[in-house]
Amino acid sequence: xxxxxxxxxxxxxxxxxxxxxxxxxxxxxxxxxxxxxxxxxxxxxxxxxxxxxxxxxxxxxxxxxxxxxxxxxxxxxxxxxxxxxxxxxxxxxxxxxxxxxxxxxxxxxxxxxxxxxxxxxxxxxxxxxxxxxxxxxxxxxxxxxxxxxxxxxxxxxxxxxxxxxxxxxxxxxxxxxxxxxxxxxxxxxxxxxxxxxxxxxxxxxxxxxxxxxxxxxxxxxxxxxxxxxxxxxxxxxxx
Length: 239
Hints:
It contains twelve helices and no strands. By secondary structure, the protein is mostly helical. About 8% of the residues have low confidence.
């Protein structure tokens, strides 16, 4: 009686494993931008090959061992699972030799190898998402971080930084502060200085402090904000 019970337990465990693992590698999470095609391919192999090995044992799961023996005493029905296990074992060994990076977890920091793996389609999708958030003036949030921005565009922070460096040649703070400066300049050109101070407009643009704003402005225009306004007062529209 123990053999059928044992086989039943194995089948239940195997079924749970199969459902969960297949959901991971074939579910919607596996198709996000953070998972590259090559990684997705290898992950599916890692799941499918052991499942093939497990499924081969179904040949003997419902039959006692004595019935699985051939007339000449050769245990023929155990050949299939044994061969399948051998192939999957050697298969994993070859995967480790051919593509070791595919079987390791990402450290969270972008490497040159990761940067080279950026695909054009992925870059285009991420840039479109980034532009949509910029159009919404997300940069006006003074607490905006690369992680928070990454959540908005559904892209891991390190991957987002890669694209910004690759396409715009800027770090995340540089990219965001540039748009804050553009907003500031647009507002003073529309005459907001008639109603607000320079610092009030800077804070409205998303800058967290006066020192940060002054530093970013000086790096961009070569003068302080007050000097810029004074020197260009005739070119600034009045409200």
